[in-house]
Amino acid sequence: MAPHDDPCRSSGGANLPPSPPPPSSQPDGPAVHLLDLPDDVLVLVAARLWAPGGGGGAKFVAACHRTRRLGLAALRTLTIRWCPARCHWPEQSTPGPDKSDRPLHPHPPALDARLPSLIAFLAVATRVRVLTIVDSPALPRSDSNGDASPRPPCSRGDDEREEVWRAVGAALGGHPLDEVKGDGAVASVLVGRKAVGGARLRVLHLTGVGHRAVPTMAVALRGVASTVVRLTLHALPDTPDLLAGLFRSAGRLPALTHLFLTVERRSRPVAVFGGDEAAAIASACPGLTNVEMQCSPLTGWGASWAVARDALPQLTSFRFAFLRRGNKPRAADFAALLARRQMVKVRLCPSRDSATPIVAALQSVDRLPKVLHMGMPMEVDDAVQLLENSTATADIKSLSLKLRGYPNLLLQGAARLPCLHTLWLRCVNRGGDVPAVPDAAHWAVPPTLRSLLLEMRHQVTPADAATADLALVRWVVASVGASRVAHLTDVRLCVRIPPGPELQAALGPLVAALANQLRTVILGVKSISDDGMGKRQRMEAALSAALPRAKVQVKPSHSF
Q: Where is this region: Disordered (predicted)?
């Protein structure tokens, strides 16, 4: 290369230091190959490959006998399926014209045919901690003529499958399992494991539990009763006494602290959770500290968990979510559960009646929960009464309420919440008079508040809804802007105000005060026909420019 072609030479002719010599192609020391690493390092490599995002350890295991032994020893999570093809009976007994020319692939062998090789595999993969069982028997189907579809090659009878799954459990007897999850076949696996002395288990997830699985499931629960601490149960409502029978047959589960119960709702109305089921759970699981439920309950279950009956004395966290097509629970049941019970976390779905008894139950103890989410509508006066005691509210960190009316009276009258981190208020105006928003009195914004959500809905939209909502936004924003201790990072507002300069100007003090702090800003605005999308996009762009660190969204209020 000529000197004037040298890319490292400046045009001015200045002398530059010579370029360093190219690195030697030969390493200084001997080359180190994968198999030169010690066993403990290879186990770490294999564990990283098996971890999510690691690419899988199949090729590592297939490299040689040593990597197979160490790779399987590093395997922590395993899924065993009855049918590798995950097949179901076809909708039609014969393929359609568009499928007839496709090549037919042989059906993979079912678990009974793979059982010897699986047992040999489990003898090497001895450190599996998390096991998932997928039985999923193919259900019979009929074609349009009513003729039954042919059975897939993997189809077996219930008794035959249960025997195979017990053999799988026996092969897992010496494995240090911590967590097992899956459908009804899990019970057979645990029974087989218990038969060879393997019992220790801490987490159990059970799905699709129906009346036929209750006897085997009860035996399985008795086998792990002394160690299981978390139980997730997804029950099928095929018999009224399913849950009561299961927990009474299982005996006592003294180590259980977390129960997650879901009862699927079917088309036929079969009630499977009421006072009898609640009493059976309280008797079998006296050490529960955390209960989460999703079901359509009968009336009276709350009394079975009342403090007056010495039920669930250690319970501190409770969450209840109802099924959309199911019956809402009654406030009296929530009140019976919460009365005279010191809670840490309470999350309640909407109830069929007023929240007044729940408010009274929460006030029956000295301190309100640190996390309090109430999905049922509350009168503003009830909410003010709930939060007026500064001693009772001193520990609240997360508060979510649904109010009947504007929230300014609650924000102005409620006691200062010194530990509040998250405040979500969903408000519904029922068409009455809009309360006057005070201009002089500001809301005392808690210094610990990081997330604020205000949502205004109108059952009957008054003519001045936009004006009233705009006044509320200005008052809240002015309070935040005037506060010297506000450190909000997440703000979400949903109001009946069209996008445009008026709303953007109302948000000015908030933008000026928290421009470098906000990370999320979501606005729900009134839908308009006059270039509504364009105005939302322009407003979103303007706010994004003013808030460089925040993710900004401006969307219609109906999609908020």
A: 1-32, 139-160
